[in-house]
Amino acid sequence: MTEAISAAARRSGRKGTTVPAQNGKGEAAEGRGLRVERVYTTPGVHPYDAVTWESRDVVMTNWRDGSVNFEQRGVEFPDFWSVNAANIVTTKYFRGALGTAQRETSLRQVVDRVVQTYRKAGQEHGYFASDDDAEIFEHELTHMLVHQVFSFNSPVWFNVGTASPQQVSACFILAVDDTMDSILNWYREEGLIFKGGSGAGLNLSRIRSSKELLSSGGNASGPVSFMRGADASAGTIKSGGATRRAAKMVVLDVDHPDIQEFVQTKAREEDKIRVLRDAGFDMDLGGSDITSVQYQNANNSVRVNDEFMRAYEQGAAFGLRARTTGEIIEQVEAKDLFRQIAQAAWECADPGLQYDDVINDWHTNPNTGRITASNPCSEYLSLDNSSCNLASLNLMKFVSDDASSFDHELFVKTVELVITAMDISICFADFPTESIGQTTRDFRQLGIGYANLGALLMATGHAYDSEGGRAIAAAISALMTGTAYRRSAELAGIVGPYSGFAVNAEPHARVMRKHADAAEQVVTLEEFDRAILDAAKSEWSACLEIGAENGWRNAQASVLAPTGTIGFMMDCDTTGVEPDLALVKFKKLVGGGSMQIVNNTVPRALSRLGYPQEQVEAIVAYIAEHGHVVDAPALRPEHYEVFDCAMGERSIAPMGHVLMMAAIQPFISGSISKTVNLPESATIEEIEGIYYEGWKLGLKALAVYRDNCKVGQPLQDAKGAKKEAAAKAAATAATQAVAATATPTPIEVRTVIERRPTRKRLPRARTGSTTSFSVGGAKGYMIANSYPDDGLGEVFLKMAKQGSTLAGMMDAFSIAISVGLQYGVPLETYVSKFTNMRFEPAGLTEDPDVRMAQSILDYIFRRLALDYLPFDVRADYGIYSATERQRQLETGSYLPAEGESDADLTEFAQSAPIERHAPKSGTPAEAEADAEAPEAAAPRTAVPVPTASAHSSMELLEAKMGHAADAPLCANCGTKMRPAGSCYVCEGCGSTSGCS
């Protein structure tokens, strides 16, 4: 056996690892086991000694109120670790109470705690041929972790080597049956998993529907009703003592009689959120009032099968089946149901789809049971009551300095070591329930994956949405999974195959052949991916040959997880399989502070594309200013696509994301955690088409997110930053012009140009309008007067009786706004500051254009925006007239069609019960303003108002785009989070909204 394996290993191009036979007891015989060669380390030199260490202070604050969330001084990290990576590891992964001697203070302690546990378990369970091999394994693992080559998932860092249970898995799948005992046990098991810092998913389709009878004769509650209890439980549990909320997935089969109710659950709750938000309640993610809304702690997915999808194609009826008898109790039109799914996803991003027949066609253990569900982010798909521990590789560590090649040999050796470590962890791991522990030990599911794919493609000059980019991604994925299963087969020769292999030997081998065949179908376009794919084919050949002799140690080997927190730990530019978020990033600096930088991958990509250094510098400077590459100096338009990102000026088309997933999926044991982002203008039909194409392309799971489909954060004034930058540039140019034209004299002359705002008064007789309004029952009048050459110049608000406190405050506020307008403060600035401001009175108005207002000021400035701001400006703040909103629903566009009268835009508003007439001259606001401000002769000059500074890459991107993006604020530090797969992650403190 050993000779046969060694021959196969030689054919695969590997070096130095021998795989001996087992001793008949599932363990390696004495002196037999893995021979581990050094890859990264040097004999006689400990990995720590090859690193320069430095002491840092980690102080984490909530920038919104200045409070200190965390403080630990004198922590030790390698000098090449970023501030962000060090902060996240210190706050999340250092163990021990702060201020005690037990608190970890160095990355060395954290890595030793984990790696030495793995080495000890490997020795105890017979993985290594000798103590020397175990020591080399320890050193190699240490080097890779310290140098950010890979990372284990978060539960490993939370738990391994501590007094806590040694939970190493991040992903769990549970099961629930149609009994009350099982349902209540489901609540309990989920709570235990959330407590350990992980997420769980399950399929509720075994629970009988609300259209079926109980044995007592009454109607069953149905699975949707039981979802409420589980959702409430999840909402109260903080995962793992950390800051993220519990993460969960709920799946229902498409033939369940309650499927239509399930599809609508979150869409209807989103309607409720909007009403409550407009009534003044805090409905942001993590807000104080969001807990009153149901189903918000879970991702929902519909499990569709080929029968349903074919019925959809053919326009046929589809039967919904009773859970107890399997008989069809209702017929629905497949097209109608599929449209309902798409519409709900359009409204609130849920439900996603899971393609049942595809999933189970790639299942290695069908003789044990079907795959019915997934973890919360949909990358782990396996048996009920099972778990998976994850690890992710940093792909940029294998790219050459000139980005011309990928070191596939180093990649193979790294995968061997990581898979070995991951399998060892199952030997000592603890599990939240005995049934999960038993299934995991019997099938030993692993989930190796990677991060930084988007950065790799850009750095090597490949567009994410291109045939070349997809070929590289497919080749790397094939090489990773082929190597992982080949090492799994070798481990089976040492410590035995997984316990469930015997009854699943044939289907497991069949799936291995499917993976190998898929590798043969990949079309390469250049030497870069051709070399990787050749190595992948060699690995799959060795995998099949060794596996035929030994079987396999692991039922599953790979997934593609979001890699949120661990992605930041490895200083990755992109997470999981995602493209880059944006070209400009927010970077924290040693010693405090931050700066805006252009991605490091951009200059590497430009150099790879052949641009000389001076052009690279000019293009990078342009990107730093504009946030995109369009019209960048010297950059050829055919290269624009290389720099396309997930968001921004040139964002990747939705199908570009789907096609990338389709290229990778045949080489992943599980699935891919990824959300396909669509613009707000996307239609229900587009989402329906994407879900259909996902099935046709052989994906296992697919989720979509339409921008602004969920209630988001208040918009911030990002355009002000652009205006401020333009003003500064103009001032600098003027100063330089003066200096260039000055005549040299022996006397030093200093020219000081004093710039101060000047006021432009309105004439004594001015044009304006009076609007009567009512907000939440509180009535008032607004007088708005304009300059003769257009533009708002004065606002006067009248509420309550003269002499009252409210009337006085409104007069003072009117004066302040009027003076500001006359000194050049743009109306847009006031709109950005006062819309969405919440206080009583709030509620319904009489204005058809602004049906709900969160306060008097919210209404006033929405009305002013509609009356005085151009469409493209107010559209950035989500302010539309009633007619515009109706047109968008009917035609998909807020703007009139060609030939349509502009008057149509205001027809509806003019028919509303709002009084408008020219006011008398000399209003009280003007009289007061005249007394408060001096006369000025100079013309009015716009005064730019600086915006709040960015505190994350997401906020920086919003500033560049000019409008806010959908992303929650971190509940821990207040920073705006960024997408990571189907979750969100905070780059300030590493908190996540899911299980990554």
Automatic annotation (TrEMBL):
Disordered: annotated span: 1-30, 913-950
Protein task: Catalyzes the reduction of ribonucleotides to deoxyribonucleotides. May function to provide a pool of deoxyribonucleotide precursors for DNA repair during oxygen limitation and/or for immediate growth after restoration of oxygen.
Keywords: Cobalamin, Cobalt, Disulfide bond, DNA synthesis, Nucleotide-binding, Oxidoreductase
Annotated Ribonucleotide reductase large subunit C-terminal domain residues: 169-705
Domain TSCPD: 763-867
Pfam families: Ribonuc_red_2_N, Ribonuc_red_lgC, TSCPD
Record keyword Disulfide bond present: yes
Family: Belongs to the ribonucleoside diphosphate reductase class-2 family.
Keyword flag Lyase: no
GO-annotated biological processes: DNA biosynthetic process
EC class: oxidoreductase
Residue ranges of domain Ribonucleotide reductase class II vitamin B12-dependent N-terminal in the record: 58-148
Alphabetical list of CDD domains matching this protein: RNR_II_dimer
Compositionally biased tracts (Low complexity): 934-950
Name recorded for this polypeptide: Vitamin B12-dependent ribonucleotide reductase
EC number, UniProt record: 1.17.4.1
Cofactor list: adenosylcob(III)alamin
InterPro entries found in the cross-reference section: RdRp_reductase_class-2, RNR_2_N, RNR_lg_C, RNR_NrdJ/NrdZ, TSCPD_dom
GO molecular function: cobalamin binding; cobalt ion binding; nucleotide binding; ribonucleoside-diphosphate reductase activity, thioredoxin disulfide as acceptor
Catalytic activities: a 2'-deoxyribonucleoside 5'-diphosphate + [thioredoxin]-disulfide + H2O = a ribonucleoside 5'-diphosphate + [thioredoxin]-dithiol
